[in-house]
Amino acid sequence: MPGRESGRVELLQGTLDLIVLRALATMGPQHAYGIAARLEQIAEHPFTLNQGTLYPALVRLEQRGWIKGTWQTTENRREAKYYAITKAGARALGEQTERWRRFAGLVDKLLLNESD
Amino acid sequence: MAGLRRLLAKLVDLLRPGRAEADLSRELASHLALLEDELLRRGLPAEQARRAARLSLGGVEQVKELHRDERSFVWLDDARRDLRHAVRLLRRDPLFALTAVLSLAIGIGANTTIFSVANALLFRAPAGVADPARLVDIGVGRQGVGFNPGSYPNYLDVRQRATTLDGVYASEMFGAPLGMGSAGNDGRGEVVSSRLVTANYFTVLGAHPAAGRLFAAGDGEQPGAAPVVVLSHRFWKRRFNEDPAIAGRTLRLNGHPFTVAGVAAEGFQGTHVLETDVWLPLGMIAAARPSEASLLANRGSGWLVMGGRLKPDVSVAQAAAELAAIGRALEREFPDQNRGKELRLRESSSIPGASGPVTALLALLMGVVSLVLVIACANVAGVLLARAAARRREIAVRLAIGAGQARLVRQLLTETAVLCGVGGLAGLLLARGLTSLLVSLLPRLPFPIDVSLGLDGRVILFTTGLSLVAALLCGLVPARQASQADVVSALKDDSPGASGRSRLRNAFVVAQVAFSLVLVVATGLFVRALRRAGSTDPGFDPRGVELVSVDPSAAGYGDVTGPLFARELIERVRELPDTESATIARVFPGGFEGIGLGGVTVPGDARASGEAPEWDWNIVEPGYFSTLRIPLVAGRDFGPSDRAGSPPVAIVGEAAARHFWPGENAIGRSLVQFGAGGPASKTATLLVVGVARDVKSSRLVDGLSSSFVYVPLQQRYTSNVMSSMTIAVRTSNGPRMAAEIRRLVASMNPNLPIVTVQTLEDYTALGLVPQHVVASVSGSLGLVGLLLAAIGIYGVTAHGVTRRMREFGIRVALGAKGADILVMVLRQGMSLAGIGCAIGLALAAAVSQVLTGFLFGLPPLDPLAFGGASALFLVTALAACYGPARRAARADPLVALRYE
After folding, report:
1. Residue B215: which of B242, B166, B207 has the closest Cα?
2. In which band, very low, low, confident or very high, does the pLDDT at A5 lie, cut at 50, 70 and 90?
3. Using CA atoms, how far apart are residues B562 and B720, in angstroms rounded to an integer?
């Protein structure tokens, strides 16, 4: 199974929220497609992400009050809902990043020990 | 903080689902547009760009679904949609909805009714009483059975000796009606119900006054010491409009002035069901009810219910053990009056001593009404199954396009839940009507009872739970069946109704018939038992006798005017056109009768005055024995010569005659009566002029006789004793004469209060109340069950006929006659009824074994009850099948073959 889905990145539960927050923090206000494009760009692989899966994360973050969506117009004169990170979101991003680092460090350490 | 925000957001979304949905659609459209722009920019042809965009997004509907799941409470949202769907479906089929709701309402309503009675009698905590769980009742039993009232001297000893109880109080078992007038107005007849209690009554119960004060230690039990009363809140409100200055006012009760001490807290009625308007200190018995003044000194006569409060850390069992020991000591010390009596202690209940039998009765009724609910559920389930059959295609389509099975079951259950919810509501309303009906079924009680059968929180909770259970009961099986539909065959083959499903439906009908039959058989048994009880000779004939009780002392009649008035009254009653015979007596058999006029013995018996055994006394006018049709075994009735001043005479019951003069003729012998209407030392000698057959009295049920000593009213009238006298009229052709007598009394003296009006039959029916109640409840419910079963049989048969119309057409085409088909359909319907009857009879046989205690020796397998019920059901089933069978018999081959 994993072999067949090698093109797609399976995200750990909850990490998508962190990634979206991080993207918005660095890029400034962005619409869903923009976020998706950014993620694909960073992953260095176009269309790795099923773009629709962003939406649950977006509504989750918005309901928590960490991001806020407003309707605006793109350079190409299309309307789109732009999400911006809020103050609470910025704070949460700091905490979540810290937690992720600790967690990832721990997993790294464990994996290193096991492979010895 | 963020979590709370999210919860709020979800709730907001739940209330305004459309807004977020529209926003999402717009957002997704813009997302696709942006993607397409990008793909076009990279040089893809327009058509390919659009497809690739959609592919990359991953399906608009799926994304919406994901978004919804994340955004809102999915299950709630689903439930709301299911609910709307269910209501729509039910409105499309109003006949089904109506019958289902109606049968559920009957089932739930009947259960709620019985539960509210149980709630009022067994579960509801008495109002205004502190910590009722620590209260106990103390009664007198014999050989471990019974819970009878005790005597005042015994109470005093119990109070003094009990160490496990924090205070022991006593109150009268049954209160007494008193005539009330206000100060300065002695006569105006208004009847209030009174109860004598010990001074510590309110203290032990932990009651608080709503105005003034309650009884204190000073309102002692010394005879006549404290002419004070405490009013019940309800009486204060009803009669005095909650006058805040009530304390200190004077009321005249039976002509005696009493000062109002205060008003008990709202709702306070002690711990028992009997309702009281005014409480009097026990010491005032001579003023309130002079005839019973000697009760305070008499150790032998039981009239007081005792109660107490457990000391902290004392268990009911410990207190009961102590009371039993005190009881044994009292039996040793006063063997004459306490022989065979034991003291029993129980947790306090609203019906002291009766809670066992009442619980049993209510459990029985609860069983009956549960059966009705089961029948109603079976009925609804049956119809639901039929509908499920009709909806097979719809459900198969839903399954085919990917609806989950659990989701489908939930949706189908929602439908039943709506039915049961509406049914439960209707049931609650029905229960309100049924409770008042149930109360009206009871014979009129001689004392007011305080049972508020209101729908309180507990009842509503019960009904809600019941509705849920009903929904599960009648919805789960059909829903599971329906959702397991085999998609392929359902879609391929249009003919509805797999055989398995019909079998299940048939099973429901069989169950309905069986359970309803049990109810009808039980009714038959009770009706037969009641007739048998009615036919056992009570020693008097209560049929066609009307009783009207008046209180002459309240209207100011004294020892001289009273007997004259009584004589004139009865003569004028005898002149009424419909009167066959009439009399006046102090009490009548069959109720809670028997007054005490002191001990009685034969001359030469050396026993001290207070120690002579008590007999039941009655004071009667001539004609008592002929009016009640009590045969005189020897001697004569009282007559005009037995008047004030002539030698005192008496008529004794057979058992009393045997007791005093075994094997000898009692006529012409003398009896010595102690404490005749005065101090215990005063004696009177009575000449026995007649011997009357003994009557079965309030003990009609257990068949024990009681022996009376009768004395003539004209000789023995004292206004003290005759605080109540009852006119009895045997009417010649059965019209109710109460109104005529009422007019007559009013024309003779408008100030004379009429205390009660009832028939002697009602009066004597008290002992048979449980049987009457069960018979009427199971009877009416059994008929409802029968009706439901008939609907069920009709439904199954009609549905089967509709389904097989084509088959019948072919049969007719092949030469079958209409009559053949008629018989075939009838046979199928009747076989269901037959199986149901067989199972029902077996069940009823088992149930009737449990009921034997209520049946007065009626054989539990009474052929009439069983046979009659079966016949009734088979005839009903035949009637229910006949309509559809006729339709089947008229099957037209041409129409039938075109039928689909």
Report:
1. B207
2. very low
3. 11
Residue A31 and residue B35: Cβ atoms within 8 Å? no
Domain locations in chain B as residue ranges: 2-72, 132-349, 357-534+769-898, 552-752
Phi/psi for B398 (5° steps) reads -60, -45
Q: Which residues of A touch B59 (CB under 8 A)?
A: 52
Residues B140, B341 contacting (CB under 8 angstroms): yes
Give the span between the Cα atoms of B625 and B622, in whole angstroms: 8
> Over pLDDT 70: what percentage of chain B?
82
Q: What local confidence, expressed as pLDDT, does residue B250 receive?
A: 85
Q: Classify domain A2-115 at the CATH topology level.
A: Arc Repressor Mutant, subunit A (1.10.10)
At position B607, the amino acid (one-letter code) is R
Q: Identify the three-state secondary structure at position A31.
A: strand
**Amino acid (1-letter code) at residue B514:** A
Are the beta carbons of B2 and A65 separated by less than 8 Å? Answer: yes
Q: pLDDT tens digits for B542-573?
A: 888 888 888 787 677 878 888 889 999 999 99
User: Is any Cβ of chain A less than 8 angstroms from the Cβ of B666?
Assistant: no
Q: Which residue of A has its CA nearest to B53?
A: A51
Q: What are the tens digits of pLDDT across the range B453-467?
A: 666 778 888 888 888
Q: How many CB atoms lie within 10 A of CB B43?
A: 8
Which residue's entry shows tokens 């007038």?
B181
Nearest by CB to B30, which of A65, A66, A79?
Answer: A79
Label residue B642 left, alpha or beta by phi (over 0 means left) and psi (-120 to 50 means alpha): beta
The CA distance from B892 to A83, in Å, is 72
pLDDT score recorded for residue B20 = 81
How crowded is the C-beta side of A52, counted as CA atoms within 13 Å?
22
Task: Say whether B542 sits in a helix, a strand or coil.
Answer: coil
Cα dihedral B222, B228, B233, B238 in deg (nearest 10): 130
Highest mean pLDDT: which range of B93-102, B108-117, B878-887: B878-887
Phi, psi angles (nearest 5°) of residue B140: -105, 130
CB pairs under 8 A between A and B: 78
Is B9 in Cβ contact with A81 (below 8 Å)?
A: no
**Local structure of B858: helix, strand or coil:** coil
CA angle, B124 as apex, B123 and B130 as ends, to 5°? 120
Q: The tokens of B733 are what?
A: 């052709």
Rounded CA-CA distance B150/B304 in Å is: 5
Q: For the segment B704-729, what is each residue's pLDDT rounded down to a tens digit?
A: 456 678 989 888 887 667 767 888 99
Average pLDDT, chain B: 79
Predicted TM-score (pTM) of this structure: 0.59
Cβ contact B9–A63 (<8 Å): yes
Q: How far is B72 from chain A (nearest CA, A)?
A: 10
CA-wise closest residue to B853 among B782, B786, B794, B770: B770
- Name the residue in chain B with its Cα closest to that of A48: B56
What residues 13-72 of chain B have any CB closer than 8 A to a CB of chain A? Answer: 23-24, 26-28, 30-31, 33-35, 37-38, 56-59, 62-63, 66-67, 69-71
Q: Of A59, A71, A76, which is closest to B37 when you measure between CB atoms?
A: A76
Q: Is B410 helix (H, G, I), strand (E, B) or coil?
A: helix
Three-state SS for B714-746 is: HHHCCCCHHHCEEEEEEECCCCCCHHHHHHHHH
Return d(Cα B728, Cα B709) in angstroms, integer: 19
Retrieve residue B131's tokens: 């910590």
Instruction: Look over chain A and give the mean of its residue pLDDT values, rounded to a whole number.
Output: 81
Question: Beta strand B191-197 with B176-182: parallel, antiparallel or unpaired?
Answer: antiparallel
Q: Is A55–B9 a contact, with Cβ atoms under 8 angstroms apart? A: no
Closest CA to B279 of B227, B210, B221, B232: B232
- Check B63 against A66: CB less than 8 A apart: no
Of B207, B212, B198, whose CA–CA distance to B126 is shortest?
Answer: B207
